[in-house]
């Protein structure tokens, strides 16, 4: 009972001191709270409606909580100068892009949570530096990335290969395909690698010169490639050709008929002429 009473008396004092330390830190960015527990600085900016990561986070921060915000992009400058960072919680934002160099300088990073965001793809380079450092120092490094609308194409083939072999750095929990449609709802680690393909890009990124293709098919340099006409145009042209042919046939029939009529008329006139001459002789 004495121990319980002592704890009950001490707890309010500790809580007051804790709040005082948090509020008294002039380096803590608004509207975040900063707490130093056993020499490890934690900065919490959770649920503050942030659209980007605050630029003035203390450089000695070890644990950074940024969940439940509206952050959309992680740039190469988002964590600049935070070399002591051990963990970053970015879950439940609206992140749709992470720069390949966003975590490059975070050599002591141990855990990153990018779950429940709007990520459709992720470059293998994003966490390469952190993984390399962790292996060299023989410590853990892990990334949580569940519940994102992943586009399971060639851009995520590298991740599928790691998940299939039992990755020690990437969580396979709820890594579900959203696109393409024929893979929607399937777990990425269960998708055959030969189905993770990318559609050909059109426009400036297309590596195929269409004129070269046509010249290959048609060897004559001056010849023009035959392009398929639109269906409506082809139908109208066909109808015109049929009508023109029909009209021509009718004209030919009429001309032939007139010629035949003239021929028989002339022939009949020649036959009647001798008969009239005989009648005149008899008279």
Automatic annotation (TrEMBL):
Transmembrane segments: 238-258
Gene that specifies this protein: LOC109465330
Protein name as annotated: Slit homolog 1 protein-like
Organism: Branchiostoma belcheri
Domain LRRCT: 148-199
Pfam families linked to this entry: LRR_8 (PF13855), LRRNT (PF01462)
Keyword Membrane: yes
GO annotation, cellular component aspect: plasma membrane
Keyword Ribosomal protein set for record: no
Domain LRRNT as annotated: residue spans: 27-63
Superkingdom of this protein's organism: Eukaryota
Keywords: Leucine-rich repeat, Membrane, Repeat, Signal, Transmembrane, Transmembrane helix
Residues spanning the signal sequence: 1-23
Stored InterPro entries: Cys-rich_flank_reg_C, Leu-rich_rpt, Leu-rich_rpt_typical-subtyp, LRR_dom_sf, LRR_TM_domain-containing, LRRNT
């Amino acid at each position: 009972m004495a121990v319980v009473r002592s704890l009950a008396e001490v707890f309010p004092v500790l809580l007051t001191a804790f709040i005082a330390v948090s509020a008294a830190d002039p380096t803590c960015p608004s509207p975040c709270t900063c707490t130093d527990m056993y020499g490890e600085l934690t900065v919490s900016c959770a649920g503050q409606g942030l659209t980007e990561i605050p630029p003035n986070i203390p450089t000695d921060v070890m644990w950074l909580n940024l969940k439940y915000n509206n952050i959309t992009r992680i740039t190469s400058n988002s964590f600049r100068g935070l070399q002591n960072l051990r963990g970053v919680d970015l879950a439940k934002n609206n992140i749709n892009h992470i720069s390949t160099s966003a975590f490059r300088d975070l050599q002591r990073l141990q855990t990153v949570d990018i779950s429940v965001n709007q990520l459709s793809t992720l470059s293998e380079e994003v966490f390469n530096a952190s993984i390399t450092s962790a292996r060299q120092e023989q410590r853990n490094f892990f990334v949580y990335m569940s519940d994102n609308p992943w586009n399971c194409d060639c851009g995520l083939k590298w991740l599928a290969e790691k998940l299939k072999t039992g990755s020690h750095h990437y969580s396979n929990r709820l890594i579900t395909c959203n696109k393409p449609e024929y893979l929607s709802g399937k777990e990425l680690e269960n998708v055959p690698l030969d189905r993770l393909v990318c559609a050909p890009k059109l426009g400036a990124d297309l590596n195929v010169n269409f004129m070269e293709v046509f010249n290959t098919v048609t060897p004559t340099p001056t010849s023009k490639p035959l392009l398929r006409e639109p269906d409506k145009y082809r139908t109208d042209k066909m109808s015109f050709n049929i009508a023109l042919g029909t009209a021509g046939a009718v004209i030919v029939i009429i001309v032939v008929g007139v010629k035949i009529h003239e021929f028989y008329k002339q022939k009949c006139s020649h036959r009647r002429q001798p008969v009239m001459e005989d009648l005149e002789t008899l008279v």
